[in-house]
Amino acid sequence: MNDATAAGAVPAGPVRAELDLAGRRLSYLDFGGPGRPLLALHGHLSEGGSFAGVAGELGPQWRVIAPDLRGHGDSERAPEYTREGYIADVVALLEHLGLGPVPVLGHSGGAITGYQLAARHPELVSALVNEEGAASLPAGGPSPLSFVLNFPYTAPGREELLAALGPVIGRMVGANLRELPDGGWRLPFHPQDTVDSEELVHGDHWAEWLATDCPALLVAGNRPPCLDGDLAKAMVERRPNTRLVVLDTDHFAHDGDPAGFGRAVREFLATLG
């Protein structure tokens, strides 16, 4: 964490707000502060709050705005989870906030949404921070997230839901479980929605990754599971104005090496002027 953040220049907690999208709630967190806005897009099994540490590392120079993407966190489930749907939600949020162009930071599937947003709406994106978002993902075969189909979406009590998740997933999402009005509890994602969404992100996205030449930073891990090293190098070599930082961590770089991730992103953003 930088000195300015440690001194308390960034608010202690984010403000949660929401946007109505034709009757469907899109919730987002604004981490505040006097800095320039930066949009942060999470991946599957996650939500906007996962960027709290990143917001602390980047403040006060940058004001992080992090939505709970459709079907995640406090945002309502959607009828479909296509790439077009995710992008439309982000466009609506930026228009609602009157922002753009802004740097877009994304993790995993959120990173793919980020560079697809830049390809289709270059006027909204000034720079990209791609954390472990591949330019191509193999289609077909079982979903790597199919294990979530074994989890209940709801349970009468929090402890019952945690027990059904098991220790690993329980540690990952336990703090994000939501209490229901009737006293029950639910996951911060729907298992079937998650698998559907993950399957729809697979495919060849090279054309969209290469469609823009705004400054970009690709952050990759070097421990499995992580972005293939040869693919990461090719993504940087083939796209102009793109640099690569490899951290000694796995797919969740902003959690596995928060200081290293924060330093890499701060240094990149400082070059934007």
Describe this structure in words.
- This protein is α/β, with parallel strands linked by helices and 273 residues long.
- It has one domain: 3-Layer(aba) Sandwich (Rossmann fold).
- It is built from 10 helices and 13 strands.
- It has helices at 3-6, 52-58, 83-97, 109-120, 158-173, 191-201, 206-209, 229-238, 253-256, 258-270; strands spanning 15-21, 24-30, 36-41, 62-67, 102-107, 125-131, 136-137, 154-155, 178-179, 185-186, 203-204, 216-221, 242-247.
- An 8-stranded mixed sheet has the order 1-2-4-3-5-6-12-13, sandwiched between helices.
- Helix 2 (52-58) links the parallel strand 3 (36-41) and strand 4 (62-67).
- Helix 2 packs across helix 10 and helix 3 (83-97) packs across helix 4.
- The longest helix has 16 residues, at 158-173.
- It is globular, with a radius of gyration of 18 Å.
- Residues 1-10 have low confidence and may be disordered.
Please describe the structure with a list of short key phrases separated by commas or semicolons.
273 residues; alpha/beta; Rossmann fold; 8-stranded mixed β-sheet; 3-stranded antiparallel β-sheet; 35% helix; globular; disordered N terminus
